[in-house]
Amino acid sequence: MPLDPAAPRRGITTQMPEGQTMLDATAPRTLPAAAGIGYKSQHFAGLMAAPGPVGWLEIHAENYMAAGGRSIAQLRALADHFPISAHGVGLSIGGEGPLDTDHLARLRHLCDWLQPARFSEHLAWSTHDTGFLNDLLPLPYTAATLARVCTHIEQVQEALGRRMLLENPATYLAFAESQMAEVDFLSEISRRTGCGLLLDVNNVFVSATNQGWDARAYIDAFPLHAVGEIHLGGHDTDADDQGRPLLIDSHGRAVVDPVWALYAHTIARGGPRPTLIEWDNDVPPLTELQAEAARATAILTPVEDTP
Predict the structure, then answer these.
(1) Which of these, 20, 36, 189, 215, could form a disulfide with 16 (CB 3.0-4.6 Å)?
(2) Are 57 and 38 in contact (CB under 8 A)?
(3) Residue 124's domain spans which residues?
(4) Nearest-angstrom CA–CA distance, 299 and 264
């Protein structure tokens, strides 16, 4: 049975360091079906003064695992005004080894005091033995991988006492040993663990272009009922050795028109969902992110034609 994302962990008492308190439990703890942006510290003052169409914020969880400091103080102030989604990049959900319990404990501490509306991670791996690779690497879609990922997700959900979302990857190749399609793999993970899904529409477009399959057919087959959040981002365009298009999920550009069209198709099929404008590299001024958020809002809440 799916876990309540806002439920406290059973049998665990939260102890905060001296001088720190949990956020007000009456603050917003759900994400609206509206546009949000990935928070960057240079936008703090602008967001507090004039958020415009930005209805919520997402943070990278690993950037806020410290005990205090300016970044934590700013996040506390933002959390009084915006629903927050925490997006993990370091759990290595698909890794062959066990999850890092110290990392998981720090993540649990963050979720305890922040009480984010969502927590999400990637269908990827980034660890090998004691090493950590600064990348989100793909997985073969096999029965063994499925069982391992499900075990790790159940461990995360039990430790955090909340339902997590799992994000579809951007891929550049397919494994010969894969036994099922990516959509079927994600659907089965959600069915077995009760986790939700984070649908990154740009990742779908990137993977479809790189591997030569139909992005709309992927969306049509996706379990949209399980989607708790959507991501939109930019990508770089390159070419492989044969001159074929090769897209790189860079998060450093505006969303391109074909991805906007795929997003509109997704919303038409599944209904409005919280939608993030994801821009992590070469970050532009807040006004540019707000313009992207406004474009998402126009798709989420179209204005009906008047006679």
Answers:
(1) 20
(2) yes
(3) 35-299
(4) 6
What is the C-alpha to C-alpha distance for residues 221 and 185, in angstroms, rounded to an integer? 12
In a domain, 5, yes or no: no
Judged on CB neighbours under 10 Å (0-12, 13-18, 19+), 156 is buried
d(CA 64, CA 161): 19
Whether residue 40 is contained in a domain is answered as yes
Count of structural domains, the chain: 1
Q: How many residues does the chain have?
A: 307
Residue with tokens 């969303």: 255
In a domain, 187, yes or no: yes
Q: Is residue 253 part of a domain?
A: yes
44, with CB counted inside 10 A (0-12, 13-18, 19+), is middle
| pTM of the complete model | 0.87
Q: Which residues on neighbouring strands pair with residue 167, listed in sequence order?
A: 122, 198
